[in-house]
Amino acid sequence: EKTEKKMGKGKSHDPKDGKRKEKAKMHLKRNIGYVDGVSFIIGSIVGAGIFVSPTGVLKHSLLNVGVALMIWTASGLVSLMGSLCYAELGTALPFSGGEYSHIKRGLGSLPAFVFIWTSTFTKPASNAARALLFAEYAAQPFYGICPAPEVLKKCLALAVLWSLGILNGCSVKMAAWVQTVFTLLKMMALSVIAIGGIVLVGGRKESLARFEDAFSSEIPNASQIAEAFFQGLYAYGGWWSLNYMAEEMKNPSRNIPLTVMTAVPAVIVFYLLVNISYLTVLTPKEIVSSVAVAVTWADRVIPSVAWIIPLSVAVSIFGALNSSMFTLGRLSYAGSQSGHLPVLISMLNVHSCTPAPAMIFSTTIASIFIIPSDLITLTNYFGFSAWLMIGLTCASLIVLRYREPHLHRPYKVFLPVPFVMVAMSSFLVLAPIVWSPNLQYVYAFLFMLGSLIVYLPFIHFKLHFAFLDKITCHLQLLLEVSPADESTESKCE
């Protein structure tokens, strides 16, 4: 309360007038329309993977072209099923924070806290990895054959992170505009690859032959198919991003299902066309041995303008980084609103109504991951935690169906779908641990359990320090932020 009183001082003479202004102002604005939503989802899914490493699927399906393309389609469909489950949750409970707020509503406070505890470290780490990858692709052309110096890469990565963090903290509309532009550029690059390949296939006998006997080479066994499936699903990762900004969607009950049904199938189609294009130009063996497939492809097909591809990769990573920074800010914001993170993080900027403190918080953590690069390798073992959370989210959908049958659901997913998703995600969590047991998984698990040490005193027993209020107060005046409206806060309980 102290902090709020302090904020109100000297603002306006008539207290009612001030109250009314505050009420009108302080909550996240609904700025994100249908096109922005589509570009955010596509932007999150399509990172560097499709340009650099579509090799995993092909390698694990033993260079069998038919199986590889089927796995690309299947993993796309699994992602679509998952995103439809998320669409039901996002339309019924359109709050910031995506999975976090759904898990909290469906399964209670503790699983949600474990989720936010894990995400506070793993998600900034993947942002840091993206920023470093961007720096690599952006700096490499200037160095020719020599590797670019590490210090330069790290400085560039930090610069990109903070410029995007500041952009997202200043204006939602600007961030959405940047996202749309970069998604269009990215889709243009993918179209160049897709169309280039299809034009070529008309004139070549030998590349057509590759597709005629697509299933002729040896068929992979179950564990190899599962491994290929992992790689495929990894390439579609990011379809969950829309739910993080449900609170900011215009007309969410119509737009959330629509954007999901546009964006995910569009990505599936593009991925398939691009893969077919790679296969028409290069043999499966060449693809698997190539370091960056798109670059090899460009050297074959458009040697004079081959520099377009590294540039496109950099653009693509930039777009993906923007959308993941955006969603991460919303996650910290929602966690803080529920009292799982310091209260300052859920305050909104007085001028722009953006969760600026949340953006500063998540960007700072990401910057810490950039400076010593060994930290990022630690988070490779948290791959299973993402699927654990997806499983929990789909489980909370099922729980809510039975526990709150009268909840208004503008969009309802076919009920077996979340059951299939829960089964899929438990398989994806357990399979790598069973097949290649590694001590790192134990550490990751212990880290997730470590959240209890924080949870019990601070959230369950509500331990509170008075000096933190003073710090909050000073930071509030410094950042010009104020708490979001009570009306939005009570929704998240």
Give your account of this protein's structure.
With 493 residues, the chain is mainly alpha-helical. Helix content is 74%, strand content 1%. The chain contains 24 helices and 2 strands. It has a two-stranded antiparallel sheet. The model is unreliable at 1-23 and 487-493 (pLDDT under 50).
Shape: globular
Sheet with the most strands?
Answer: 2 strands, antiparallel
Cα-based radius of gyration, to the nearest Å: 23 Å
Poorly predicted residue ranges:
1-23, 487-493
What's the average pLDDT?
Answer: 84
- State the secondary-structure class: mainly alpha
Tell me the strand percentage band. under 5%
Q: What's the β-strand tally?
A: 2
Total of DSSP H or I helical runs spanning 4+ residues: 24
Which strands sit side by side, in order, in the main sheet?
A: 1-2
User: What is the helix content?
Assistant: over 70%
Task: Write the H/E string, N to C.
Answer: HHHHHHHHHHHHHHHHEHHHHHHHEH
CA distance, first residue to last residue: 19 Å
